[in-house]
Amino acid sequence: MLLDNEPPVFQNCPSHPIIVRRGPNGIEPVNLTEPVAVDNSGSIARLEVKPHGFRTPVTTFQDMAVKYVAYDFDGNVAICEINITVTDDTPPLLSCPQSYVIELVDRQDSYVVNFNETRRKVNVSDASGEVNVQFIPDKATILIGTFENITVVATDKYNNRATCHFQVAVQATSCVDWELKPPANGALNCLPGDKGLQCIATCNKGFRFTDGEPVKTFSCQKKSPWSPTSVVPDCVSEDTQQADYNVIATMTYRANGAV
């Protein structure tokens, strides 16, 4: 008697995952043709399906694997495994860091910021697993006294995206002499004091402050705001002669009627 070592064969076992579709009313049922196994002996001893009791059509909200196992009468086994994949159209959960200000002590015109260093402050998660996080732009040269808008894009493995935004500003730290700008047509002289700085603003010859004061004084204590303000007013010309205008008005009246 010859021993049969040839296992059964599934004739229609899918080679690719079955994709669960989403319709107008949500997830649609999966309807697949049950794989058929044949054997060289002419018959199959038994066919098992795992999970037990699996039938189509079936509605599933998560990925699952269905395994068909065919046995012949000599104990040979064939397996058809079908992966059912639920499409993911839900974007990642994403929250940006709070906008923040970079304060500089040393005088400079601009400051280079690498926003990728803020990655640890970005909260992101997705049920599908790993999420790619991108900063747009990823770095920038920010002029002192200005800011940059940054967009964070989070993308999951199904190409679903979420975005959020924050700002980064660069400014001089409080109570440094270069935080004040000299007045137009004038000068600014700053001297260190016991607890901070004192700056005197004056106007060039032929110019004055609009309120008529000969000088303006600004002071601050370390890491405190300037008093009375951090904005030095410009000087204007002392020549206050106003331009002369000759205006000729003409009125025409209509007889026996309204004006």
What series of H and E elements makes up the topology?
EEEEEEEEEEEEEEEEEEEEE
Q: What is the CATH first-level class name of the largest domain?
A: Mainly Beta
Number of helices in the DSSP assignment: 0
What gyration radius follows from the Cα positions, in whole Å? 40 Å
Q: What's the helical proportion of residues?
A: under 10%
How many domains? The number is 3
Shape: elongated
CATH-defined fold name of the largest domain: Immunoglobulin-like
Number of DSSP strand runs: 21
**For the largest beta sheet, what order do the strands appear in spatially?**
2-8-7-6
Oligomerization state of this entry? single chain
Strand content: 35-45%
Structural class designation: mainly beta
Query: What is the residue-mean pLDDT, rounded to a whole number?
Result: 87
Ranges with pLDDT <50 over ≥5 residues?
Answer: none
What does this structure look like?
The protein has no helices and 21 strands. A hairpin with a 3-residue loop joins β17 and β18 (196-203). 0% of the residues lie in helices and 42% in strands. The chain folds into 3 domains: 9-88, Immunoglobulin-like, CATH 2.60.40; 93-172, Sandwich (Immunoglobulin-like), CATH 2.60.40; 186-237, no CATH class. A 4-stranded mixed beta sheet has the order 2-8-7-6, with no helix packed on it. It has strands spanning 9-10, 18-20, 22-23, 26-27, 37-38, 46-50, 64-71, 77-86, 93-95, 100-104, 110-114, 123-125, 132-136, 139-143, 146-155, 161-172, 186-192, 196-203, 207-208, 215-221, 236-237. The protein has 259 residues and is mainly beta. The relative contact order is 0.11. The radius of gyration is 40 Å and the shape is elongated.
